[in-house]
């Protein structure tokens, strides 16, 4: 699952990054707004310092701003993480509840709002916790952003987050203090009615 623990295709040090105000024109023009639903398939690569090859997983993300965030890993093993305002839940391959250690719950509760803000392009909120920059070449149709944490609690876990996309967000790369890198490639899917299972999980 997506617990913070493939390096980015483009290292941050190779770019000239230009600071961005939260209300910068570029940010306002990025096509990252979410109305009723965001659904995307993903390929996640988790490169650990102690391993030569990344751990790869696949699945899909579902975000409904009114209900919450669902992150379902389908390969190599099905697991589903559901985060709503009320609680954090996890389900196994049979869709049965799984216990979540308290430390993991706290980490997820801290991570989920940030992920939702990134997907929804809520730059004003993100700017309260991150310094935002963009490459000189960035345009609303092809962009790369850099987020450097300002919050001391985030700085203890992350050195930076890199985002890139075109018609929507396509790559999220989270660089951890310990050298591990988590990269998530996203491919937007057409919105569709929530399944009975999705409704059940998000409305619990």
Can you offer a commentary on this structure?
- It is a single chain.
- The chain is α+β, with helices and mostly antiparallel strands.
- Helix content is 19%, strand content 39%.
- It is built from five helices and twelve strands.
- It has helices at residues 25-29, 102-120, 123-126, 152-155, 196-202, and strands at residues 17-19, 38-47, 55-64, 68-75, 79-83, 88-91, 97-98, 130-135, 143-149, 158-165, 169-176, 181-188.
- A twelve-stranded antiparallel sheet has the order 1-8-9-10-11-12-2-3-4-5-6-7, sandwiched between helices.
- A hairpin with a 3-residue loop joins strand 10 and strand 11 (169-176).
- The model is unreliable at 3-13 (pLDDT under 50).
Helical/strand content category: alpha+beta
Mean model confidence by pLDDT:
88
Which overall shape is indicated by the principal axes computed on the Cα atoms?
Answer: globular
Number of strands: 12
Q: From the alpha carbons, calculate the radius of gyration and give it in angstroms.
A: 17 Å
Largest sheet descriptor:
12 strands, antiparallel
Number of helices: 5
Helix percentage range: 10-25%
Amino- and carboxy-terminal Cα gap: 21 Å
Short structural description:
With 204 residues, the protein is of the alpha+beta class. The protein has five helices and twelve strands. A twelve-stranded antiparallel beta sheet has the order 1-8-9-10-11-12-2-3-4-5-6-7, with helices on both faces.
Lay out the secondary structure:
Elements: E1 17-19, H1 25-29, E2 38-47, E3 55-64, E4 68-75, E5 79-83, E6 88-91, E7 97-98, H2 102-120, H3 123-126, E8 130-135, E9 143-149, H4 152-155, E10 158-165, E11 169-176, E12 181-188, H5 196-202
Antiparallel strand pairs: 1-8, 2-3, 2-12, 3-4, 4-5, 5-6, 6-7, 8-9, 9-10, 10-11, 11-12
């Amino acid at each position: 699952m997506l617990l913070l623990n493939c390096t980015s295709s483009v290292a941050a040090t190779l770019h000239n990054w230009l600071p961005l105000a939260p209300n910068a024109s570029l940010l306002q023009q990025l096509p990252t707004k979410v109305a009723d639903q965001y659904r995307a398939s993903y390929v996640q690569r988790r490169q650990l310092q102690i391993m030569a090859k990344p751990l790869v997983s696949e699945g899909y993300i579902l975000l409904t701003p009114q209900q919450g965030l669902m992150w379902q890993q389908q390969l190599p093993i099905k697991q589903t993480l559901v985060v709503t305002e009320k609680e954090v839940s996890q389900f196994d391959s049979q869709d049965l509840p799984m216990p979540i250690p308290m430390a993991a719950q706290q980490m997820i509760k801290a991570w989920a709002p940030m992920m939702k803000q990134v997907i929804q392009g809520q730059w004003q909120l993100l700017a309260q916790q991150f310094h935002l920059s963009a490459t000189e070449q960035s345009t609303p149709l092809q962009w790369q952003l850099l987020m450097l944490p300002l919050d001391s609690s985030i700085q203890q876990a992350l050195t930076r987050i890199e985002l890139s996309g075109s018609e929507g967000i396509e790559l999220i790369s989270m660089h951890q203090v310990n050298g591990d890198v988590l990269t998530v490639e996203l491919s937007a899917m057409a919105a569709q009615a929530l399944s009975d299972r999705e409704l059940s999980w998000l409305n619990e």
